[in-house]
Each structure stands twice: as C-alpha cells, then as structure tokens.
Amino acid sequence: MTHLFAPNASPSSAAAHVEALLASYPDFPQPNILFRDLNPVFADAVAFRAIVDDLADQHRGQFDAVAGIEARGFLLAAAVGYAANAAVLAVRKGGKLPGTVLIEEYDLEYGSARLELEVGQLPAGTRVLILDDVLATGGTIAATSRLIERAGYTLTGVGVVLELIDLHGRERLGTAPVHAIMSI
Asked: Which of 9, 23, 66, 109 has CB 3.0 to 4.6 Å from 77, enough for a Cys bridge?
C-alpha cells in the first residue's frame, strides 16, 4: 500500500492526513447534504495511527474509559482504548442492545434517531471520553453526553476527527472540552 506520509508520522500530522484523504459526496444521503467520508482516512494505516495517537495524546490521563458512537466512533474508541489501556463503551443505535438500557432521542441534520447505552458496565464516577468521527450539528454527541451522565459516569471531554464548524455543533455540547483534529 502506498502512503502519502512517512511510516513514523507524528500525531501532529493527523490533520494533514485527514485533509489529504477526506472524501466528499454531494447530495448524500439526500439533496443539499455534503457528506464527508472519513473511510479513506481510516483505510490508510499511517493516517489511522496518527489519528488514534492524536486523540489519545490530547486527552491522556483524563479518562478511564472511551465511549464510541455507532458506527465509526467504534473504530476510534477501540483503538484509543487499546492505546490508553482504557475501557471501551459502545453507544448503540436504538434497539440493538439487550438488557437494561438508557435511551436518548435526538435530532440529526437530516432526521431523528435514538441512542442506547447498557447500564452498570463501569463504576459510578468513571471518567469517560466520547469519541466520534464527525461533529456536525452536535445532536449525536449531545445525546451521548446525556447518556454518559445519566449512567453515573463523568464526562471529561469529546474527541472528533472532523468538525463541520458552519453547523455550530459545539454549541450544543455544554462545557465539555472538545478536541477536533480538523475543522472545516
């Protein structure tokens, strides 16, 4: 596989990787939506490592667990959890978890949905970092924040690969520190 950057790229190069590999699809999933696709970034091993290192380093020592939002947030949470020796929580789309779950409904930029989190996975007060691929309108991450707090955990921050600043999603996230590798 050909890489655009040196194999030992530093975390500071994460934004350069995202900028070089990010794909955009107009009118997907519906007219007037510009979909930003990070899959080509994740498919490049060097770029993915730079992203994981950047997210882990930015929040090092501030979390005991990472919460990944279905689906691309799972990729980030698993990798950062491994890199930081931290627990991983899966925040799932509605109807996909057994047992007792907490549910949050929220609005998307082009519809509505719900998220779920299994209760009792970690001790109360566990410090949790939320990870997802894109911060757009903020609805998904805000709903996840509410789930984390309702579960009795402490939200310590949010990490995303890409922030779409024109959609003002950060405004919906309250006081939690937000780290975006790249903002457009």
From this structure: 66
45/118 Cα distance (integer angstroms): 31
pTM of the model: 0.90
Per-residue pLDDT of 38-74, as tens digits, reads 999 999 999 999 999 999 999 999 999 999 999 999 9
Given the residues 19, 109, 150, 171, the one annotated as active site: 109
Q: Tell me the residue length of the chain.
A: 184
Does residue 127 have an active-site annotation? Answer: no
Residues 6 or more apart whose CB falls under 8 angstroms from that of 2 comprise: none
Containing structural domain, residue 23: 12-183
163 flagged as catalytic: no
- Identify the CA nearest to 136 among candidates 115, 105, 165, 176: 165
What is the CATH number for 176?
3.40.50.2020
> Considering its fold, how many domains does the chain have in total?
1
State the catalytic residue, choosing from 49, 72, 170, 172: 72
For residue 87, how many other CB atoms are within 10 A of its CB? 16
pLDDT 10s digits, 29-47: 889 889 999 999 999 999 9
